[in-house]
Design a protein that fits this description.
Layout: H1 3-15, E1 19-26, H2 32-46, E2 50-58, E3 63-67, E4 70-74, H3 75-78, H4 86-95
Parallel strand pairs: 1-2
Antiparallel strand pairs: 1-3, 3-4
Length: 105
């Protein structure tokens, strides 16, 4: 990859749309560890594409993930927590594959 190509990729990171993610989790159910782990996964993979990520304490067994205001995962609808890599797959479909160190060189 040429220096010019790398520069264009970096400029695209700055100018491409930024996304908002919200993770709503049940506090009485102790879903906080799952919410924190998912936050870590999202930040590690998509931080350059995020405007913000919010953790929203809730109740009633809720564990919902929203992207730009649209619910992309709902424990209430599926009656289960997300499986390993499930949210990553949903994000990849909507905002692109995760960023990795060395992907811009």
């Amino acid at each position: 990859m040429s220096t010019t190509d790398a520069k264009v990729q970096v400029e695209n990171l700055v100018t491409e749309p930024r996304h908002s993610i919200e993770i709503e989790y049940c506090v009485p159910c102790d879903f906080r560890p799952q919410a924190i782990e998912l936050t870590r996964e999202v930040v590690d993979g998509w931080s350059e594409r995020l405007a913000d990520i919010r953790l929203v304490p809730s109740s009633g067994g809720r564990f919902e993930v929203s992207l730009d205001g649209e619910v992309i995962f709902s424990k209430a609808a599926l009656d289960r927590h997300p499986e390993a890599g499930e949210i990553a797959g949903l994000l990849s479909e909507r905002i692109g594959d995760p960023w990795t160190i060395g992907s811009i060189s």
